[in-house]
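tool_call: predict_structure(chain=1)
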Amino acid sequence: MSEEVYGPDRAQRLVALLLALAERIQELDRAGGGRLLDAAPELQKLLGNARSELFHYEVRSTYDTPEVAESRRIVEEAQRRLGELPFEDSAPDDDEPWRRDPEE
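tool_result:
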């Protein structure tokens, strides 16, 4: 279940991963001499890891927890059952059907 919800600890690790990537890019840039482009394979790997984790963050941060999913199911079931109840037909503008004359 911990894989389904993106918790605060995992979010902190993602931030650290992104900051480490940024630092590595700056470090290579400061070294000059084409080091940034020479490190393409390393950067591809780091970018891939960051991209994958960002995807998980985006998907799982919006994932319903089991409790929320159960609450949603209960509400949907109640709405479905309400739609199945046999209500008397009344005129659409008749918002107080109990006040109608029974002789009508």
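agent: The chain has a mean pLDDT of 82. Proceeding to next step.
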